[in-house]
Amino acid sequence: MKEKIEKIDRSLLRKYDRPGPRYTSYPTVPEWSSDFGPEDYRQCLKRLATEKKPLSLYFHIPFCKSRCLYCGCTTVVSKDSKRAEIYIDHLRQEMALVAEHLADNNRVFQLHWGGGTPTFLTLPQIEKLFGSISDYFTFDDEAEMAIEVDPRVTTVEHLELLRRLGFNRISMGVQDLTPVVQELIGRNQTAEETVDLFNHCRRLGFSGINVDLIYGLPGQDVKNFSDTIDAVIKIGADRVAVYSFAYLPGVKPHQKHIPPETLPSMTDKYDLFATAVEKFLSEGYAQIGMDHFAKPEDELSVALAEGRLHRNFMGYTTRPAADSLGFGMSSISELSGAFAQNVSKLSDYQDLISSGEPATFRGCNLTRDDLIRQRAIISLMCNFTLTYEAMDRAFDIDSRKYFELELNDLKQFIDDGLAEVTEAGINVFPRGRLFVRNIAMVFDAYLRDEGNENRQVFSRTI
After folding, report:
1. Is the full-model pTM beyond 0.85?
2. Which helix or strand (DSSP H or E) is residue 268 part of?
3. Which domains does the chain show, CATH number per domain?
């Protein structure tokens, strides 16, 4: 018998819908500086070499054969596989630049290929890139190896090769299966090819198969989005991410091709989001963060129940790797108490790497206060709790005093029945999980700085 799920209060969605960070990092990207460059990145790598910590690797494959109109990613639209061949050569050069500083600290617990469309690569190109990675890094026997795939271009041969190389997790872009919505976003992806690819993934032994959905797309309504959700539940997705569509035609010019009158109203968008949450919870999925869901037996759900969930630029994870190295244009590294990002233009990236320089163009070194607040925000975003004792022990502070101002600011969430503050710490209630970004924002020191000229408009929290 399915558990009865409390209906989501739409008035609270309206109340707390405001621009805010997703906290894939703290400090957030707008606070990073262009003063942080290649030499700073080298120093971080040298420190990392002495720390002997497990590593996480991210490879950005930017190429897509066509551009989806909703897309907010850093991509290169091309049908020429030779461009990818040249790019792979530069990825190898970048790995060589990084590896010379790491000594033998090269054990990998997590690998992720993102995009763009990683399966834009031909089979020989996939083998070539993976071979280069294996030349410079050693995979742990229990390593999580994940890749993002587009069902429109991914073949069974792609999947068979990836599985043979050791990839064990797949993230499938779906967004919406409604034909009229797909026409409006320039993404023709039939339900049949999506289901077929999913079933091939399952047959080959991929676990933790993730499906990405987006709400707020043109042409969506509760009925047709519900049908998409039902289809995703029916095929048995292990994990589902339900993202909000950020319509920013001034920043993403290709979004100008979406007629604004085809977009759902804000009230309708709240209903779309609430419908997705209610449906997945009623089917037994656990809520991971604000907008991710996982089957109860999935590793993410188990880690959440045991309070050991983690979060990095690749999303939620159970792996212990605290340091991640990003390769490719626009990729981000988090290592040795710092963030570093590569340039976002393909030609600039390749020119810098060819010259023997890291492609770093901005980043930041974290202060002690940054590290304390980062831990608090990650604890709330991942495990919906913050324990004073753990914070005090980790940083030798009295966290009740350290966060005295923040604890007072939590009153609105307490009054709305979304969270509680106890003698032991902070707990976010199940009905408050939708608003965990808002709760985390209370601990963001940079958002308190009214004179901060680097502040930008983030995506909305709902």
Report:
1. yes
2. helix 266-282
3. 1-27+367-451 (1.10.10.920), 29-324 (3.80.30.20)
